[in-house]
Amino acid sequence: MDMNTIYTQQPDDNEKKMEQDFSEEVKVKLPELREQAKTQLAEGVDRLLALEKQTRQGGDEPSTTKVVRCIVEVCLEARDWPRLKEVLVVISKRRQQFRNTIQTSVQVTMDAFPSLPDKATKLDLIDTLRAITEGKIFVEVERARLTRMLAQMKEEEGNVNEAAELLQEVQVESFGTMDAREKLDFILEQIRLCLAKGDFVRAQIISRKVTNKALSKPEFQEIKVSYHLLMVKFHTHQKDYLNIARSHWAIYDTPVVLADKARWQPALTLAAVNAALAPYGNEQYDLLNRIFIDKRLGELPQYKKLLKYFTTTELIRWPTLLGEYKGALTQLPSFAENSETLLKDLQARVVEHNIRVIAQYYERIATPRFAQLLDLPESELERFISDMVSNGVVFAKIDRPRAVVSFIKRKEPSDVLNEYSHNISDLLNLLEKTCHLIHRENMVLGGSPSTKIRQNTKRERRDIVEAHPRRKALATMSMDQLIPVINKLQDVFNALGTDAIDLPQIVVVGSQSSGKSSVLENIVGRDFLPRGQGIVTRRPLVLQLINLPTDPKKKKNVDDDDDSALKEWGEFLHKPNEIFYDFNQIREEIVRETDRMSGKNKGISHMPINLKIYSPHVLNLTLVDLPGITKVPVGDQPADIEIQIRTMVLQYIERPNAVILAVTAANTDLSNSDALQIAAVADPDGQRTIGVLTKIDLMDAGTDAMDMLLNRVIPLRLGYIGVINRSQQDIIKKKPIRAALKAEAEYFTTHPLYRSVASRCGTPFLSKTLNKILMNHIKECLPELKAKINKMAGEAQAELLTYGDPLYDGKSSQGALLLQVITKFSTDYKNAVEGKSTDLSLSELCGGARINYIFNDIFARCLGRINPNDDMTMNDIRTAIRNATGPRAALFVPEAAFELLVRRQIQRLEDPSLQCVDLVYDELQRIIAQLESKELLRFANLRERVVEVVNGLLQKCRSPTKAMISNMIAVELAYINTNHPDFVGGGGAITQVFERMAVTHAQEQQMMMQQQQAMLAQQQQQQMQGQPGQPSQPVPQPQPVPQSQSKATRTPAPMMPQGQGDINGQPGSNGFFNMFFGGQAPPGGQAQGAQAPRSAAPPSTPMPATPGAPAPRMAPPSASASRSGSGMSRTTSVDKKVKKTTASGGKSEKLDQVPATIRAISAPTDKEKFETELIQSLLVSYFDIVRKNIQDLVPKSIMHFLVNQAKDSIQNELVANLYKEDYFDNLLEESSAVASRRTAAKGMLDVLTKAQLILNEVRESSI
């Protein structure tokens, strides 16, 4: 048996179950056999193999594995390498061998590789183990490791190509048992060898097997660095600076590299340089800016300055840049060898940057000035501009005669109108914003003396208000009433449970125990928030403060007490009908509601609690108290509690309409404030952040908060306000908040340092400031808020219309609705087929256009590819001609052969035609599936039945369509019309054949003349080089070509090769008659129309054409040869004459047996070639006629029988099958999903309508 066959044998998959336990026997015998093998290796191994066979046949896998391990170890200890290889092969090929056993034998052998004596032994064992493991999945990992060892050895020998090819065979990415680290390391080795080999295409393919997700794991950081270093080599060969920069940036962005300054500095340097060298694009510019803003780049000032050049829209002077960076860049290890290319590319990037800058600031510029600004010769300027225009980076036109470059792009009329409309909109928005700013300034300066114009405006306004009572009510609206309006909007949206509108509000953020809750209680003036150890605020608290008027006319009658109007109370949104007068109960309700959603063990929830507090002691405010930022999870809090809280906080403060109230303890470092840090994420410019400093009274001696209060440390546009909360002792003693506020005011006014800013400190000032900020913020957001609500209301209305109205109750109403749906679907189907649909796609063909594509592209192209001679060889045609003649020898080509062959080819047109029907049928089904009207989406059962009925209709129409097309093919097969006006006919076909033969003969004669001339020149040269005095041989002259043969295009008669036209020595007998009569002369001894007499020379000895030239040896065509050359040959290869002795002692000849199958395998004669070409010409001509007919009639038949029939009958079919009263309830059963979406859309529309009514109460002119 071949060794390769032995090696690749698979073990039997049907491994036996354990039938007998040999563990005790193996335990006893194994030490004894091991000792015997040490002295008598051959006998010991044989006995161990016998024991292995016994355990294997008994199905004891553990014992078998132990025995095999012992055999391999014994051979290794004896260092008998040939026996070891033999044993390994024998073990692997044994029947029903256990997989674990084979795997163990391979692993034990591999473990012994370090102790092998020489390289040759190691190579021999590796080859043996690779042969054993080939094709076995359970040892694929071991085979991969062996292959890698072999590749390393080949590489050490210098065979890098062979090593790369070996390693490429292993697809480790599909190995399920290999460790991920080893897989990545293996793939990196494959990439490295491919790069060393120079196979960069294969290296790119293999590199795609490594994903960024796999490299992002912390344990693969060094592998990530190695991978990107290899990719740097690949991209360097491709000269792809952008990907080189990405690879270096990925190396730099690895934690293990960031921890080592000696590693991240080169990576960041190369990332910056290659990003600058990369051609301009969106990805390049993004990477360039990400590198530029990296903080560590500040430690490399030279390269930070380089990136600043390219990130600033200013011109870069190339001489300056070159003098500054030439030395540094050329010393980089990656650019030392190709410094000239580096500087050339850098100059190109500088020029491109300058062109972009000039195009941004100039409309047109003179070419000399342009070249001067670019530090570039004028001859190279046009090349740079052309490249950038071609790449779409800039738009420019060069006027060479005037030497001007223009950057003005001519705008289309539609673009001009759009720009005009956009400018008008911007102007109106700017005007509206200006009006808001003026109103805000009027509100801020409301106490200052008014001008005469303003007094006249107020007077006129008052007159108008007095004339219109409703306008009077609106005119009295002040800025203070804006906050209650926003509160109403908030209530409306919270009642629906949605947060679709970004309403203006103040969001309170801060770290745990920073005093947020105390600040809120001071603002409210009541003690109502939960308190305790650790995190207390575990759900967002939306606190709406509503000021109660103190005017007796506007007092709210709560009870019969005289002071009832001054009472304070609270209301929760989740308990709308309950009023809480006791603020202790408010605290308890907050605790209960928090525990209900978040649990009782410090869990958090993002669901807000909405609380309204009515009091005459508060200003109108809307505040959101968020959980404090904590670091360490406690209780039921998850491990990522800090991330969850930060995410929740960011969800609130990232909204543009949110004002951030950052609470920070003054006795901590302001730069470490969690509140300011997270506020900077959402509001980096500090435009909507106000700082609150608590615990000022608890600062260490010798420290103060003046710099913070004066906005000098971390500036905020809204500044900082200092407050003093109650201490824990005050809370325990239940000190009233109003008393605490008095103590706070006294502290600031009496403090020697803070009394200068006492008027801007304290809770009252904080409340007023927040009230003013919120009102101004609302005023600025109001136009945008109105526009957004109006837009959402329109979208909600449109969405509600798509779900339709609720169903009617009566059968007649249901019937009308059903007919409406059927009619709509039928109309949509017809429009889709005819191309009249209203939602036509602009990106792809759809509907009837796809059917047209099938007819004119797919079907027509398929028929055009059919060659009538493809499926027919010359032997097939010869056989058909012989079969059509029967036992007689035909003088002419039989028509039966032509009809037989042409029918066979016409039959090939049937399958594409029937496939065209199926394709159109599939497209019609596709149209049905795409008709997702709102009515069908609303009624799932109706849609299912409509699709079923229409598919049934299409199926019914498809059968007669296919029958029609099959009949068309049958009609073509029934009668071969050789009188068709487009058919070439016999005479035309013969003419075509003669013309082709004449052209071929002329080419052969020309080639023969060239050969004779070459031979003549060679003979003359040989004679001239001959010895003097030797008689020269006569030089044969080239035989002239007759004029009738040289001008083949004027003589249609065929030119036959020498000897083929002569029949029985008649040189003038080659012609049409002779071609059809197979070389036999007619009666009379002379061909009809032949004028030449018989040749005097016998046929067997033709005269040479030239004296002195050797005459060709030609055998006269005998009768038997003529018959044998007719093209038919028996399947037997050797003719044997069998002699049989007769009774008289003589011998007689016996005929051969007739073979079962007779095929035409001999070379065709000239007559057969002529007949074959004639048949082929006739076939092509007639097949083209039939193909045109089929190509024209098949689409017409499909359109009539399938497309139009289905289009015209679809409505009648649907009505006949679906319009039945018994089906109404089932068909018009609305899905629960649609009903729920309609309810949700209606609820949203109602909410938005209410919001519109609320906002309509606000008139900008009234504020």
How would you sum up this structure, described in words?
With 1263 residues, this protein is mainly α. Among the domains are: 504-548 and 566-761, P-loop containing nucleotide triphosphate hydrolases (Rossmann fold); 814-984 and 1166-1229, Dynamin, middle domain (Four Helix Bundle (Hemerythrin (Met), subunit A)), CATH 1.20.120. Strand 10, helix 30 and strand 11 form a beta-alpha-beta unit. It is extended, with a radius of gyration of 50 Å.
Quaternary structure state of the chains depicted: single chain
CATH class wording of one domain: Alpha Beta
- CATH architecture term of one domain: 3-Layer(aba) Sandwich
What is the third-level CATH name, the topology of one domain?
Rossmann fold
Helix percentage range: 55-70%
Q: Report the structural category.
A: mainly alpha
Question: What is the typical, i.e. mean, pLDDT?
Answer: 76
Quick tags:
1263 residues; mainly alpha; 58% helix; Four Helix Bundle (Hemerythrin (Met), subunit A); 48 helices; GTPase activity; Rossmann fold; 5% strand; Dynamin domain containing protein; extended; single chain; proteasome; WH_DNA-bd_sf; nine-stranded mixed β-sheet; coiled coil
List strands and helices in order, with pairings.
Elements: H1 3-7, H2 23-39, H3 41-57, H4 61-78, H5 81-93, H6 99-111, H7 119-133, H8 140-156, H9 160-168, H10 180-197, H11 200-207, H12 212-215, H13 221-238, H14 241-252, H15 255-258, H16 261-277, H17 282-292, H18 301-311, H19 318-330, H20 339-361, E1 364-366, H21 367-374, H22 378-390, E2 397-399, E3 404-406, H23 413-444, H24 452-467, H25 469-475, H26 482-496, E4 505-510, H27 516-524, E5 541-547, E6 569-572, E7 575-580, H28 583-598, E8 609-615, E9 621-625, H29 641-653, E10 658-665, H30 674-682, E11 689-694, H31 706-709, E12 720-722, H32 728-732, H33 737-750, H34 763-802, H35 811-834, H36 848-865, H37 874-885, H38 895-906, H39 910-930, H40 934-938, H41 940-974, H42 985-1024, H43 1043-1046, H44 1072-1076, H45 1119-1124, E13 1138-1141, E14 1147-1150, H46 1166-1218, H47 1221-1227, H48 1232-1256
Parallel strand pairs: 4-9, 4-10, 5-8, 10-11, 11-12
Antiparallel strand pairs: 1-3, 2-3, 5-9, 6-7, 6-8, 13-14
Helix pairs in contact: 2-3, 2-4, 3-4, 4-5, 4-6, 5-7, 7-8, 8-9, 9-10, 10-11, 10-13, 11-13, 13-14, 14-16, 14-17, 16-17, 16-18, 17-18, 19-20, 23-34, 24-25, 26-48, 29-30, 34-48, 35-46, 35-47, 36-39, 37-38, 38-46, 39-41, 39-46, 41-46, 42-46
